[in-house]
Write a structure and sequence with these properties.
Elements lengths: L7 H15 L3 H13 L2 H4 L2 H24 L11 H13 L4 H24 L3 H37 L3 H13 L6 H8 L6 E9 L7 H13 L6 E6 L2 E7 L4 H10 L3 E10 H21 L6 E3 H10 L3 H12 L7 H12 L4 H8 L3 H14 L8 H13 L9
Parallel strand pairs: 4-5
Antiparallel strand pairs: 1-3, 1-4, 2-3
InterPro entries: CdaR-like_regulators (IPR051448), CdaR_GGDEF (IPR041522), PucR_C-HTH_dom (IPR025736), PucR_C-HTH_sf (IPR042070)
GO molecular function: DNA binding
Keywords: DNA-binding
């Protein structure tokens, strides 16, 4: 079909709208991300894929807007830049095929509604608005269709690449084990080069910036072997910026904490230690649960153990109700200083024994009592009446990316 050229006034209106789109407000971008990720909970709980989706959202918005600033109302070619193509790569590595269409259509709807609001703010001429909206509706739809076609092509290329080689064989074998398929243990061990007897601890290592130094992932995977007593771990690449690792036996976290401190882009989720093939599987799912909780809460913590977050993961599965529980339980104490919150958390952990708590915190008993009195002033109800609830709520705060204003 022939592409109708807009009239000069409408061309100018499209250009002005596009300029605003190119300089989109942060809250508009957040609205776009929220809509796409909320429509795809499995993606929202995967930090690496969620970050890739966010980058792709912004890239597409900027791409379409820039094209219409340059040539208002003209056809916009597909965005075949690194952001949408990285989406294709991540999808294939996770075995997901149906996501792009749904997500891009949700994003298209949000962007279209925002563009209409911008247009009606800039013009009140019915004829101009009618022409402008007709042109832009077709432009956005055609742009998304063409971009999706490019992603579909890239998906086929990535799938072909991933079906060859030893990495593919390891991924396939691990997938069978995790799915509970009846693969003989000896055959699985031969393909993995890893013994499935004894105990295992699974780890998920990921980087939220896939354009950064991904060699950090390999160093982290190697460090897990050292942290497990120098025994060789099993490492699988489920995506570009993620490693699934299993180590025989227990992992000493001190070495990993030092590595994470030196590698600011790396995050680590450690599962439980469990026995046999069932333990291999269960420990991995525990590590995935830990990773998903860190992503869901936008946690500032960069290393987490399932044994430390199991209760928080359960409570925060419904984020809105978890936030309500924290607000209701802590009141003003939610915004207390980290030092004061740590004091109360330690006090409850020591079964409300002031002497043991003071010794553990290396502080004077009278100082501890003053801090506890200050906590009671901020809490809706005295700590003695709800110590367990307060401790749980403080754990949620600890793992969440909530900004706190120090209150003493």
């Amino acid at each position: 079909m022939e592409w109708a050229k807009p009239s000069p006034p409408v061309r100018e209106l499209i250009r002005r709208c596009a300029q605003i789109v190119v300089n989109a407000r942060p809250e508009w971008l957040q609205e776009l991300d929220d809509a796409v990720l909320n429509a795809n909970p499995a993606i929202g709980s995967d930090p690496e894929l969620a970050a890739a989706v966010s980058r792709s959202n912004r890239a597409n918005l900027f791409f379409w807007g820039t094209a219409n600033v340059r040539d208002p109302g003209a056809p916009v070619p597909p965005n075949t830049g690194p952001e949408p193509l990285s989406i294709a790569r991540e999808l294939v590595r996770r075995g997901i095929d149906a996501f792009p269409l749904d997500a891009y259509r949700v994003g298209e709807g949000v962007a279209w509604r925002r563009l209409m609001d911008i247009a009606f703010d800039l013009s009140s001429d019915p004829a101009e608005l009618h022409e402008m909206l007709q042109i832009c509706s077709r432009s956005i739809s055609t742009f998304i269709d063409a971009t999706l076609t490019g992603i579909a092509t890239q998906i086929e290329l990535e799938r072909d690449e991933l079906t060859h080689g030893t990495h593919a064989e390891r991924r396939e074998t691990v997938a069978l084990i995790l799915d509970g398929a009846p693969i003989p243990r000896q055959r699985a061990e031969s393909r993995l080069g890893y013994a499935l007897t004894g105990t295992h601890t699974a780890v998920v290592i990921w980087c939220e910036h896939p354009d950064g130094d991904l060699a950090q992932l390999e160093r982290a995977a190697e460090a897990i072997g050292l942290a497990a007593g120098g025994r060789r771990p099993l490492s699988v690449l489920p995506s570009v910026a993620t490693r699934w690792v299993w180590a025989p036996g227990h992992i000493e976290t001190c070495a990993l904490e030092a590595l994470v401190a030196q590698s600011p882009d790396i995050r680590v989720a450690i599962g439980s230690t469990a026995e046999g093939i069932d333990g291999f599987r269960r420990s991995h799912f525990d590590a995935i649960t830990t990773q998903q909780m860190m992503a869901r809460l936008h946690s500032p913590q960069r290393l987490a153990l399932f044994t430390d977050i199991q209760l928080v993961a359960l409570i925060t599965a419904d984020a809105a109700r978890a936030a309500e529980f924290v607000h209701r339980t802590l009141g003003d104490f939610e915004n207390a200083s980290p030092e004061l919150q740590h004091t109360v958390r330690t006090f409850v952990g020591e079964q409300c024994n002031a002497s043991r708590t003071a010794a553990r915190l290396y502080t004077h008993r009278n100082t501890l009592l003053r801090r506890l009195a200050r906590a009671d002033e901020l809490l809706p109800r005295p700590l003695a009446e709800r110590s367990v609830d307060v401790a749980v709520a403080l754990d949620v705060v600890r793992w969440s990316a909530q900004s706190r204003t120090a209150s003493r």
